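Give me the fold.
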Amino acid sequence: MTEREAFAARRTYSGGVYSASKWPANQQMCMHHELSYRLEFPGLLLFACLTAATAGGATAVSDSPTVLQALPAELVGRFEREGWLLIRNYNDDIGASVADAFGTDHPGAVESYCRANGIGFEWQPDGGLRTRQHRSAVVRHPVTGQRCWFNQIAFLNERTIDPEVREYLVDVFGEDGLPFNTRFGNGDPIGEDVVQLINETYEAQTVREPWQAGDLMLVDNVRTAHSREPFEGPRDVLAAMASPVRLADCSPTIQVAVR
């Protein structure tokens, strides 16, 4: 699959084969399901390790049906009813650019893509782009029918950003100008306690194995969340996405209007 709506820049090695997302080596990349905010996302992820880090750097995994069962029923019920919102701000200074995310920076083409993919958009006075996506937090696996906690609610929330980095970004771009943030589906902020609870629940269900050069790892992207742990030394892991799945085929609890 060709990646669209990326949240961080990647290097392209060949058609459909990318570097891991650029993320500071000393910071945890929290559990998430790849591109779970898209209307079509990969059902299968393939990771290949060219160079293993000297310490850390595992691509850990967590079983999403088990995580769903472990989360408080009241919280899950709210997300099932309301879904979740992803709010993104694109600019040339941080995160993925408009061109990185949409494959073009032509305003008309970007707007057409957004309309066709259920993404609200607003061009900012400085030329930047702000988008809003309303998505389901719980879906059914397209093959097994299992209910899965499938989203990036915690990972892309402002409270997952390193506090010093977040403070700097707020100073530069303002509270509403962060490169990404998540909210409850009705627009309410998601508290730090909820983000911490989700991440702790993932951690309790996490399995990790250190990379060795030459390893290949296949991940069911709907059934299994994955993360990238902090590391030291060089680390070169490639990623590819395959077996596209349509959100509409996963019994979403939130209906997305497209034009």
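Helices lie at 64-70, 73-82, 98-102, 107-116, 163-173, 192-204.
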